[in-house]
Prior knowledge:
Layout: H1 3-14, E1 18-23, E2 26-30, E3 36-44, E4 47-52, H2 55-58, H3 65-81
Antiparallel strand pairs: 1-2, 2-3, 3-4
Helix pairs in contact: 1-3
Amino acid sequence: MTQQLQNAINKASRIKMTVKFLGNRSYLVVTPQAHRYTVRFETFDGQRYGRCNCKAGAANMACYHLPKAAMVDTAIQSMRSH
Ligand SMILES: [Zn+2]
């Protein structure tokens, strides 16, 4: 795991964000500043890939919206596979 990703995960657990499931593995993340970003996940060969439409995400950098949405995605996917 890269340091950048680790930092993003740490930040995601500190900051209280609201994640709303939009359907089809898309999530709306609302920050405390009321910024709204959309995160989408896809799975290839058992590996999950996420993409956020914030500035960092658009530059292919690890942002903290992604791990937050990933926690919700993991919960939803595990519910569906049972
Ligand atoms: Zn983001």
